[in-house]
């Protein structure tokens, strides 16, 4: 479903080019849950950003469900994120001025496919029923990340991209949240690509790939 | 569309959570729009009135032929010109008194009146016959009907016993004007066969040369785009506009800081929205739409406020314009569609300008928060450097304007450049002061005090700049007004030398009054003057004839004199020139001025220059006997009486009884003086009101900046609280800091304000009114203004400080728990 | 009756337009159908006396001095010239002095060629000398336009005269000569306009020979030809149900002259009138039943349909012609508007003339 071939990315820093990705090849099948590990600075987040279309690659191809996304314009990439991808970050990135309920619903709404039944199921499964009227600042970290996962899955994406989603959480909470995420991914049948530095968490997924010196090993 | 609406809903959820920020933004926009459009409403009203006047008078907007000697034109010349193919139309003009009030009577000839004259009374069908056929009609504006205290259809009696034709309202006419058929005007004004001027229509074909038909008796006056009245009142309106503009920019300062803050706070939200798939173009569009919608709402509210302001100021403006320039403006505010559109337009444009930098940042926003932000010191340092460079460039412009500028616009340009430069350099100066303070500080808390003040500078600087501008303008304007006030009062004391002033309705009655007065023992002297009007180098000039009397020699205020100036005046070959005229025509003492008189040119040596404040016309003062020799037709209806103080009331009462004179026609010195001062005060009432408004807007700017800063300052204050400084203590330190920078700003505003006053007095006034005032500094007034500034700052700082002092410890603790 | 419907010769309509302040509008106040109360009445049996009757008759409501000329230039190209001075009294009674005078004056002038038509109008109030007419020596003027005799001008022929007028883009100056006497129209100068007594005093000088120059757009050409002057005054020449008229003056190649007009009535009974003037100056009224005036092709100008072509037949004189305009667009777009232009005709007789159409 996701197919990456020979992907490369270079940043210029203080006149010195840094080759972050040097020809990454990676495939994720539908419904497959893949952990992406590697040391700090190995390019995990960059790879995730390129897949999400948040940044443009310098070479290689990314193909999602048969269509290539590397050459897309900014607005086409935005549409791709909106309609087919779910993103979860370490910093939760909730909208502080919206209530939990609105935060959950808002990507689905701008994508134009808000599904009330699915929304209710998400609330139920994520255990957010009593928190709907609260604002993000009134939630704990684990609760916030659950909202962020719910928001990402509300559009029933083809692929869920998560960047250290539990990095700010204690281990017990992290396990809870991740278990929820795994269940929901299974429920929707979408793929999951999760960046993590925790081997413990990586072991709970179907497969683990490691990024080292800009290539998948 | 739905998508855009969702994004708009998400974006605006920010305002729901931060209502104070929204209020700040709206207040900024509203105050910017309100003062600007209020001033525009007044200017528009006045301009409309001038247009009406220009059109009705067949005035400056129409080309015309006038007599070269300034005398009346014989009617035969009109016929002769028509028969030579000149499309001229005769106009007879004069003044008549009804119920003691003076009106301009205008006799027109509707058949030949050029169609281009514009707002000429439209005479169609039956109206035409009613206007020209006996008894005819008197066309008046609705306001004039009220002034005449008469109903439509009435025939008021004028002071010479004649009756006006029945009154008829024509809304498009200006107030103060009575329009009648030319034949009626000639009869009422006792000018049979005479024409005041000939309006010139569009020439079709090729008429004979003017000289062959009229010799050198007539001269062509080309139409000017700007009427005399507009030229004279320009400075007044420019003054209003400058204030409006200033408030507008101060308002925009507020908007800018509010939007900047909101943008910073919404930055993560914008990134999340992009990450969730909102395209950059859509997001930017929605941001602009949101801003325009807010500006639209604020613009409409601002317009309503502007209307209220204009309506409140209008009576004073009307009184000033009438008192200073004789310009008649309806006191009822009428607003046009353009005004509403322009107001909303300026609100939107202002919001876009104020938001420009934030919008550009939003457009360039990358989804990933990549580059590490510079440390605040570095960022601030660069910002101060670029601001100071801009300030120096603006000061350079100011120098150029001072050196090469020679117009009123250049004068205002200089003022604007001075103030803009000072505002731009203010943060750098504050930074220097704070750095010096920091260097000297030893105690840790003091060190923190200075260092933290420096860090706050960028957040507060816009509000401080607004405060600086408002204060400087206040200092400048108050100094000018006070200088003018002093000068004017002492001048008035010199000019109003006689004890009683009498103005007779006509020459015959003036003679009767004089002979009656000469037989009374309680009148020591009758000083009978006269006034004639001529054109010198295309300028309307008033000739004032004064009798030779010791009183004038002692008290008439002269700015410059030749030796034995008054004695030179007596034989009639010397004159004094008013300061305005001397500047306008570049006349100096010893120059010779040639006055066109009915009997030929009258050459006079200039023996003195005198102040003539408040007179829009240039003036030459000559001996009254000489004036009567050269202008025998001059009516001598005004006289000043020297009367022992105790006998004044009885004399006035007797005069009123004997000659049926009303309040306007006979008054004692005190009354005349009081009236002059009243007009003077009303003129500056407008200025003071706008001054106060501007200061108020600056206060709001300060308040809103402090309020918005207060929230973001918690992380800075929380550590201090954590190490044991109590909340009230923290609040006190914060307050001291705010007051210190405000005080410094206020102190800086004083020299700037004095510079502004100097510009107003030495450049703007000279160009606008033609007079230069002595420059005074009023320390008490300055101290008062600094006090006002501090009180305004205190008021603005108090609310956020109180909030801080009362803040629950949990809120402060959260900074550590939840630092993001 | 509105000003739109009044008219032969633009007449008071034009002066009514004066009151409209040069904004052509359908309303007016001096309709010719208005009651003539207070003004002198036109009655049969007047004895005309000259030069006195060349001058104004201020007791009558309306009056005109009307000249049309059919000219040709050196190349034989036809052109036409019109010069008219209208007088109207806004009130009856003795003449008031100066600006109070109740007379209003209006001048119309035009030049017409096959390819262009130029016109201008002027307005003036009486009493001050800006416009007026004097009988001896004859002078009619408004502003710079004049129609002027000299000391030697003969009262019986009203010749010689000098005429000039101008506008923004044209001007002309003509001298008029004639050796034949004035002609009284209608019944010895009494011209009946309806069965209900409406009438005017009407005489003409149809035998003018004109010569002079005319300038259009700064190009001056020498011209010569025939001219026709009408003098008419009345206080109420139209009946209330008469909407306008079609008038023509014809110069026959034989030297005979023919004046014809038709008053259009609401009931459709359009009454034709005519006078046949022999080359020797004798005049004879033509019976209404003898005249057939048939409108032909129309042009549309300013939203009006104007019959600019005509067929004319007078059975008793074996007269049958077709008239065509020199320039079908000879529209006088003045404050009071009408069609006035030169025509040519052929058939049993050939010649040139002028056509006027009002009240359309």
Brief digest:
Chain B is of the alpha+beta class.
Structural summary, described in words:
- The complex is a heterotrimer of chains A (217), B (820) and C (360).
- Chain A is an alpha/beta fold.
- Chain A is built from seven helices and ten strands.
- Chain A has helices spanning 44-51, 74-84, 100-110, 116-126, 141-153, 171-188, 199-202; strands at residues 2-13, 16-28, 33-38, 59-64, 67-68, 85-88, 159-163, 191-195, 207-212, 215-216.
- Chain A is globular.
- Chain A starts with a strand and ends with a strand.
- The model of chain A has no long low-confidence stretch (mean pLDDT 87).
- Chain B has 820 residues and is α+β, with helices and mostly antiparallel strands.
- Chain B contains 24 helices and 21 strands.
- Chain B starts with a helix and ends with a helix.
- The relative contact order of chain B is 0.11.
- By secondary structure, chain C is mostly beta strands.
- Chain C has one domain: Beta Barrel (AttH-like fold), CATH 2.40.370.
- Helix content of chain C is 2%, strand content 54%.
- Chain C has one helix and 25 strands.
- Chain C has one helix spanning 11-19; strands at 62-73, 78-89, 103-113, 116-125, 131-134, 139-142, 145-154, 159-166, 170-177, 183-184, 190-192, 199-216, 219-234, 242-252, 257-265, 271-277, 283-286, 291-295, 298-301, 304-307, 310-314, 319-325, 331-332, 338-347, 351-357.
- In chain C, the strands form three sheets. In chain C, strands 1, 2, 3, 4, 5, 6, 7, 8, 9, 10, 11, 12 and 13 form a 13-stranded antiparallel sheet that branches.
- The longest helix of chain C has 9 residues, at 11-19.
- Residues 1-34 of chain C have low confidence and may be disordered.
- At the B-C interface, helix 3, helix 4 and helix 6 of B face strand 4 of C.
């Amino acid at each position: 479903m996701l197919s990456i071939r020979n992907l490369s990315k270079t940043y210029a820093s203080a006149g010195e080019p840094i080759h972050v990705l040097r020809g990454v090849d990676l495939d994720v099948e539908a419904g497959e849950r893949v952990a992406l590990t590697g040391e700090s600075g190995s390019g995990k987040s960059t790879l995730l950003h390129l897949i999400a279309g948040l940044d443009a690659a310098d070479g290689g191809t990314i193909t999602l469900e048969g269509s290539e996304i590397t050459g897309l314009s900014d607005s086409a990439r935005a549409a791709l994120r909106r309609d087919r991808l779910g993103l979860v970050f370490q910093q939760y990135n909730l909208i502080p001025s919206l209530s939990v309920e609105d935060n959950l619903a808002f990507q689905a709404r701008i994508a134009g496919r808000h599904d009330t039944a699915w929304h209710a199921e998400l609330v139920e499964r994520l255990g957010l029923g009593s928190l709907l009227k609260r604002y993000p600042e009134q939630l704990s970290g684990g609760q916030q990340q659950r909202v962020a996962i719910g928001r990402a899955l509300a559009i029933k994406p083809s692929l869920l991209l998560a960047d250290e989603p539990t990095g700010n959480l204690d281990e017990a909470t992290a396990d809870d949240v991740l278990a929820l995420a795994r269940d929901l991914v299974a429920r929707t049948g979408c793929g999951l690509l999760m960046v993590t530095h925790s081997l413990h968490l990586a072991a709970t997924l179907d497969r683990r790939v490691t990024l080292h010196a800009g290539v998948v090993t | 569309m739905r998508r855009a609406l969702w994004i708009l809903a998400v974006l605006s959820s920010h305002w729901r959570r931060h209502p104070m920020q929204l209020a700040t933004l709206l207040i900024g926009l509203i105050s910017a729009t309100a003062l600007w459009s209020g001033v525009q409403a007044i200017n528009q009203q006045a301009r409309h009135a001038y247009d009406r006047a220009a059109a009705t008078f067949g005035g400056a907007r129409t080309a015309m032929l006038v007599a070269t000697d300034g005398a009346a034109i014989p009617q035969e010349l009109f016929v002769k010109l028509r028969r030579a193919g000149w499309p001229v139309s005769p106009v007879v003009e004069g003044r008549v008194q009804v119920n003691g009030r003076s009106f301009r009577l205008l006799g027109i000839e509707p058949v030949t009146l050029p169609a281009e004259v514009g707002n000429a009374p439209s005479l169609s069908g039956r109206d035409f016959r009613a206007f020209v056929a006996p008894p005819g009609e008197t066309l008046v504006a609705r306001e004039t009907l009220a002034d005449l205290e008469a109903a439509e259809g009435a025939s008021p009696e004028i002071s010479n016993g004649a009756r006006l034709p029945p009154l008829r309202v024509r809304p498009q006419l200006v107030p103060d004007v009575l329009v009648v058929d030319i034949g009626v005007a000639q009869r009422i004004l006792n000018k049979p066969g005479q024409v005041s001027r000939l309006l010139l229509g569009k020439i079709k074909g090729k008429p004979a040369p003017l000289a062959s038909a009229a010799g050198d008796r007539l001269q062509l006056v080309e139409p000017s785009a700007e009427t005399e009245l507009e030229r004279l009142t320009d400075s007044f309106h420019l003054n209003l506009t400058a204030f409006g503009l200033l408030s507008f920019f101060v308002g925009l300062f507020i908007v800018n800081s509010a939007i900047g803050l909101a943008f910073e706070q919404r930055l993560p939200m914008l990134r999340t929205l992009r990450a969730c798939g909102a395209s950059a173009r859509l997001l930017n569009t929605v941001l602009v739409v949101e801003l325009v919608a807010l500006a639209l709402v604020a613009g409409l509210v601002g317009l309503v406020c502007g209307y209220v302001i204009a309506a409140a100021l209008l009576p004073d403006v009307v009184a000033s314009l009438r008192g200073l320039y004789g310009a008649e403006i309806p006191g009822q505010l009428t607003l046009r569609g353009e005004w509403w559109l322009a107001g909303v337009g300026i609100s939107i444009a202002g919001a876009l300008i104020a938001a420009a930098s934030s919008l550009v940042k939003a457009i360039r926003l990358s989804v990933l928060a990549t580059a590490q932000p510079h440390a605040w010191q570095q960022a601030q340092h660069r910002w101060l450097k670029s601001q100071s460079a801009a300030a120096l460039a603006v000061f350079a412009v100011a120098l150029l304007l001072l050196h090469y500028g020679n117009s009123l616009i250049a004068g205002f340009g200089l003022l604007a450049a001075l103030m803009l430069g000072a505002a731009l350099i203010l943060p750098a100066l504050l930074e220097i002061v704070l750095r010096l303070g920091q260097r000297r500080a030893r105690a840790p808390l003091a060190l923190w005090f200075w260092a933290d003040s420096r860090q706050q500078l960028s957040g507060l600087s816009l509000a401080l700049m607004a405060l600086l501008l408002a204060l400087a303008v206040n200092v400048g304007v108050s100094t000018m007004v006070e200088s003018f006030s002093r000068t004017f009062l002492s001048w008035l004391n010199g000019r109003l030398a006689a004890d009683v002033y009498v103005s007779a309705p006509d020459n015959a009655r003036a003679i009767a009054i004089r002979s009656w007065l000469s037989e009374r023992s309680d009148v020591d002297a009758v000083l009978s003057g006269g006034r004639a009007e001529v054109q010198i180098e295309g300028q309307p000039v008033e000739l004032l004839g004064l009798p030779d009397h010791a009183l004038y020699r002692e008290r008439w205020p002269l700015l410059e004199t030749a030796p034995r100036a008054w004695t030179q005046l007596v034989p009639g070959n010397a004159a004094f020139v008013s300061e305005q005229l001397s500047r306008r025509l570049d006349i100096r003492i010893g120059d010779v001025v040639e006055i066109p008189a009915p009997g030929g040119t009258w050459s006079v040596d200039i023996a003195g220059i005198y102040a003539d404040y408040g007179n829009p016309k240039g003036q030459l003062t000559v001996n009254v006997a000489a004036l009567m020799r050269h202008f025998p037709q001059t009516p001598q209806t005004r006289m000043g009486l020297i009367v022992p103080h105790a006998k004044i009331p009885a004399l006035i009462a007797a005069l009123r009884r004997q000659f049926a004179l009303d309040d306007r026609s006979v008054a004692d010195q005190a009354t005349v003086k009081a009236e002059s001062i009243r007009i003077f005060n009303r003129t500056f009432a407008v200025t003071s009101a706008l001054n106060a408004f501007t200061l108020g807007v600056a206060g709001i700017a300060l308040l809103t900046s402090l309020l918005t800063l207060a929230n973001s300052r918690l992380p800075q204050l929380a550590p201090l609280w954590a190490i044991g400084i109590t909340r009230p203590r923290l609040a006190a330190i914060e307050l001291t800091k705010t007051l210190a920078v405000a005080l410094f700003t206020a102190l800086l505003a004083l020299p700037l304000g004095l510079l502004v006053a100097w510009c107003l007095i030495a450049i703007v006034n000279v160009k606008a009114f033609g007079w230069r005032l002595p420059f005074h500094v009023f320390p008490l007034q300055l101290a008062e203004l600094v006090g006002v500034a501090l009180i305004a700052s205190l008021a603005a700082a108090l609310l956020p400080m109180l909030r801080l002092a009362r803040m629950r410890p949990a809120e402060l603790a959260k900074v550590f728990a939840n630092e993001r | 009756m509105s000003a739109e419907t009044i008219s032969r010769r633009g007449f008071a309509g034009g002066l009514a337009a004066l009151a409209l302040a040069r904004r052509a509008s359908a309303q007016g106040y001096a309709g010719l159908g208005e009651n003539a109360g207070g003004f002198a009445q036109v009655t049969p049996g007047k004895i005309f006396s000259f030069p006195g009757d060349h001058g104004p008759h201020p007791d009558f409501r309306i009056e005109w001095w009307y000249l049309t000329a059919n000219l040709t230039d050196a190349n034989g190209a036809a052109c036409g010239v019109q010069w008219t001075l209208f007088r109207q009294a806004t009130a009856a009674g003795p003449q008031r002095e100066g600006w109070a005078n109740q007379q209003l004056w209006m001048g119309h002038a035009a030049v017409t060629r096959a390819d262009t038509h130029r016109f201008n109008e002027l307005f003036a109030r009486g009493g001050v000398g800006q416009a007026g007419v004097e009988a001896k020596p004859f002078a009619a003027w408004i502003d710079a336009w004049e129609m002027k005799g000299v000391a030697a001008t003969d009262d019986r022929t009203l010749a010689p005269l000098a005429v000039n007028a101008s506008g923004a883009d044209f001007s002309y100056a003509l001298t008029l000569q004639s050796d034949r006497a004035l002609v009284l129209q209608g019944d010895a100068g009494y011209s009946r306009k309806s069965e209900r007594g409406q009438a005017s005093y009407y005489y003409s000088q149809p035998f003018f020979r004109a010569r002079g120059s005319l300038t259009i757009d700064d190009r001056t050409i020498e011209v010569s030809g025939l001219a026709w002057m009408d003098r008419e005054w009345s206080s109420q020449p139209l009946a209330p149900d008469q909407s306008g008229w079609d008038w023509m003056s014809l110069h026959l190649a034989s030297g005979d002259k023919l004046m014809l007009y038709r008053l259009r009535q609401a009931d459709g009974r359009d009454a034709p009138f005519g006078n046949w003037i022999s080359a020797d100056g004798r005049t004879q009224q033509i019976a209404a039943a003898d005249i057939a005036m048939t409108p032909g092709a129309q042009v549309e100008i300013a939203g009006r349909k104007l019959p600019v072509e005509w067929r004319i037949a007078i059975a008793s004189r074996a007269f049958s012609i077709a008239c065509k305009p020199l320039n079908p667009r000879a529209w006088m777009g003045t404050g009071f508007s009408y069609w006035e232009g030169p025509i040519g005709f052929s058939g049993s007789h050939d010649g040139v003339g002028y056509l006027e159409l009002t009240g359309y």
